[in-house]
Write a structure and sequence with these properties.
By secondary structure, the protein is an alpha+beta fold. The chain has seven helices and 22 strands. The longest helix is centred in the middle third of the chain and has 15 residues. The protein starts with a strand and ends with a strand.
Amino acid sequence: MEKARLYQDGTVGEKVFAHAIDDEPWWRRQKVPLICAFCMTPVVSQRTTVGRAPRAALFRLARDRQHEDVCPLNPTEVLQKIAHGSQGVAVIEGDELHLLLPDDLGQIGATTPAVGTGPVGPGDRFGVNISTVRPLLPPLINSAVVIARFLQKHDYDADVVAQFKVRRPGETRAVGWGEFCHGPASGDHARLYARLTGGPKPEHPVAVYGRVTAVEQDSQDRPVLRLADGLGFTVRIRSEHASLLDPLAVGSFVLAVGAWKVWTPRRGRPELQMFTEEHWQLAHWTYDAATGRSGPPACPPPLSPAQRTLRQARAATATRKPAPGRPASPFPRTRPSGPPTSAAPPPPATSPASPTVVSPAPPMPASSPGPVEPDAALAEPAAPAHPAVPPRPPAPPRPAAPPRRTRRSWWPFGRQH
């Protein structure tokens, strides 16, 4: 926890914050009793730890103590509220909450968010309201955001994190929360990087939780969010639609759910990246560790119809394959097999120097009975297979090359004869 209250002689005193613990304030030197910021449960302060598992200073529950039922930091109460508003994607098993993961990202967006059934925590005096994210998100994303914000207020205490688990597709056994959500420590991002490069790769959508450290620009002047610089790689969020990344500013905390991958450019560090395609893949909020106050969660506006049409057109262009060779004409050209139907016969294939003269036949006597037979000389000749083409004239002879000039020889003493 990031904050607590002093409790002296049965009187609740002022609020104190975890960022002052390492400076050994007076209340720590005098060992003043502490209680939770929202209930009367005793808590203790803990300094920053270093080593294999570094942890910032925080307040923890005293030994064998639990938050009161009405406390917004009571995990049991929060678990019930999340399960009630999850539409079945989060179920309670004993003292644990199991989040059911789908096979692919499309199944998340296909679910319809329920209006007014999101988990709502009592009280907002100290920024502990865990209400539904607006615009409304799919139940699984909204539940994941509520869990991430709740764990943030407990500074990702190991005992609290252990109460949240996930079930992979087709499995009944639950695994740790870190199987789905990677963050906020750089070691969590490095674990996802190792899974994507060395395997086994996750077979379900994963989430990355972190803080925006810089807003950069790509080659087309679109915003790019940089979350952290890991050990040999950089964590970035990209999108073809600038409207999905514009609302996020430096210092915002973000939960990004999608298909994460590793991209290695020709120059520079490898990149652990995610391309955002829908507004519900990103949820962001602000959090002040000094005061323990967090802003309401939000997500970018949904894509407009014009943006969706453009994306569909780009996808169709990318999947369309060009036909090999020249496309066949719908009206095939056929060669006539018989004589042409034209009334005028084609010119005879004879040399122009010796034309053929056809003499007309003498007229038939009027008294001759019987049908008239055409004369053989007037019969229409059959069309040649290929019209005669006059031979090409021979190429003119190439002019003879001029004789090569030879270099004259000169003797040292006069011209040679």
